[in-house]
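User: Show me a protein chain along with its predicted structure.
Assistant: Here is one chain, sequence first, then structure tokens.
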Amino acid sequence: MDTLTHIFRGLFGLTAFVGLAVLLSENRRAINWRVVTIGLGLQFVFAGLVIYAPPVRYAVEAVGAFFVKLLAFTGEGTKFVFGSLVDAEKHGMVFGLSILPSIIFFSAFTSALYYLGILQKIVYAFAWVMTKAMRLSGPETLSASANVFLGQTEAPLLIKPYLATLTRSEMLAVMVGGMATVAGAVLIAYISFLGGTDPAQQVIFATHLITKSVISAPAALIIAKILVPQTEKVASDLAVSKDRVGANFLDAICLGTTDGIKLAVNVGGMLIVFTAGVALVNYVLSGWIGDPLGLNTWVASVTNGAFKSFSLEFILGMLFAPVAWLMGISNDALLQSGSLLGTRTVLNEFVAFLQLADLKNAGAYNDPRNLMIMTYALCGFANIVSIGIQIGGISAIAPGQRENLAKLGVKALIGGSIACFMAAAIAGILVPV
């Protein structure tokens, strides 16, 4: 496709995603189209500055290079503990020893920044811009901004004093913000997935992932305000919670390390279970259904070998292929891309990123544009499991909101998914062919 076709496809997709949110809105007449328009404008401005303004691009690339350096620092610590077991030349990449430790280190690093108050200042600056532009409440904007760096249960801690009194619309904004982004601790793992051991490639994907996290903040607010429009008066003050993690700097690092260990074990455990579960489902679909009915041969034929048999990946690919098309994915990669989107939604983004990395390494998904669009689309916690995580995590610090959280869970999943799709479509429009 030429540049003009890419732009029209992306704009059509963007319109379709916003239209879907409007279709699902609780109160279409109350939608504030000024917020929607300005939010879309912010996404284009943020992404455009990174792509076309050299000073901004260099700054984001510098942040990406710093993330890559953190990966190297993690490697030193891992090598000290596990020795030659982490030597990729001898044993290949051992996921549990090469990837999961980066989650632990970055969690500790983030905790230290939080204790020093540095992270809060960065979040405040970003939230200030969005609050002034979109004229939304301080708490929901702060939470959405914090999601650029923090996970879906950590970001709400920055607005802890406000959580108990948030309206349904504000609470949905908090939830969608969590679904539309990923925590920095796992983002650093995705950099190593897609960039491999090449520092230059790692910086490229780090830049894309960081950009995606930034533009997802206004996207999440847009979709939340369409799905559940704000009709009540809200707090406009922009004050970050003064709570600190840990009694002192060292305690903050220790607590961050402990949280990182829990997250790494959780990620490792989920990958074992979900990967085994997918294999079980595929065994049934392929062996018990696909083989007797001849579906395996049919699937291999109609997909030109992209899928070898009737499988969960094929089913998800068929379901989500239209979404992939709307985002700007080329026609020859729609089924593979749809499968990755379905995997992210039904299982989680970690499994989807691993599958994307496997396809890339096998030479089956090497179109740079498709790869970039999918990097944006998959970078979010919008999956079924996250509904439970948000209900449990946020209600632990705001028990009175548990009923709202439970009722808004599915809307948050839909909203987070649409926000990710919008970010991918915008990237597809702006990134040169």
